[in-house]
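Schema walkthrough. Field components (list of strings):
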Amino acid sequence: MYKQVKDLITGSIANVIVRISDGASIPFDPANTDYQAFKQDIAEGKPLQDADGNEMTAEAAQEFMRNLP
Amino acid sequence: MSTIAVNTITDASGGTTATINGYTPTVSNMAGRNRIINGDMRIDQRNAGASVTAGTSNTYAVDRFINQASVDSKFTVQQNAGSVTPPAGFANYLGATSSAATSLGASDYYLIRHFIEGLNCSDLAWGTADAKTVTLSFLVRSSLTGTFGGAINNSAANRSYPFTYSISSANTWTQISVTIPGDTSGTWLTTNGVGIRVGFSLGTGSTLSGTAGSWSGSTYFSATGATSVVGTNGATFYITGVQLEKGSTATSFDYRPYGTELQLCQRYYQVGSSGAVGKFTSTTNLGYGIVFPIPMRSTPTVSHTANYSAVDLGVADVTITNTTINGSRISTTGAALNGTTTGATSGAIGIVFSNGTGFSSEL
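Field assembly_structure (string):
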């Protein structure tokens, strides 16, 4: 399971996702294998939380994923 | 003392087999010829020699060697496991130990693998008519005897070259050499992605095992009929001196200085350095910056691997209990980080003087 991160300075969603199992911060770099695994996991239907910890709907998650590099 | 000043040294027939003290220098056997990083298993940044349990998520014992398994907890891996005497010329080895007598399902796999970055093997021209032959060599020791297996794969794992090798004496270091013709087919990345996957099997099911000694368009991680190390509880498999080089001959191991080897590893994983300076933005957060000593392969994943210390110049030392990226502020050369603490002096300067952060851009 993964969780969005909010940039505390700008207030916007950061280009980083947190892997909840170990707390690792994963940047949105297509060459990063953890990022590749994140995209694969979400595509396979694993849940995604927003920055407040609420599980996103499948539609909201897919909309978020569509805009990623 | 005399000096030889010539432009070319050839053998008696004008060829390229002239030797110097029994060594025949060629373009492919000079320093830097080994495409494997940490092939002598010296560097263990993550675990400092502690044991790691292989599972369905990739794990690393020594740097750059990945443990992969289709089922959790069937073998452990550790630098110098079992504390046997390494082979002559080596101080370290990577040791795997079977944790159970595991039967192999058709699609099961238990592997130790090494991924070579495409940028480091583009000259091999695999996937073209000009593909170069390579030779894989290593020293191996097992409590079992028989025919063992492994495989070379491309990034997509739709090109495979299963290979076999024999261990005839149990618990004895054996030198192995496998020559592999370059693959003229398939897609082999020459980018900062995976160029070549080199794998040693500890047990692979029938679906993922193929005929040794030929290229295939299927996904194979080992050769058909190879020994299963995980099939015997307590069985051991130790390996070191892993080298993959251009050409059809295995040359002596390409020893590199420790500092050089560490830097090569740090392109893929590094531990956060001490001395980073920042500011306590509150009583519970230290914002600080870090510059990577070696630029990383890709923007790295940041993990808090252990609590660490920072000095709060307003009061005293504090403990950092979690580390995250400050927003999106990270690149291949450095990062802005947030460290979680308690009881710090808001507004004070903070200096990290140990570090429990790991940065990973592994392939």
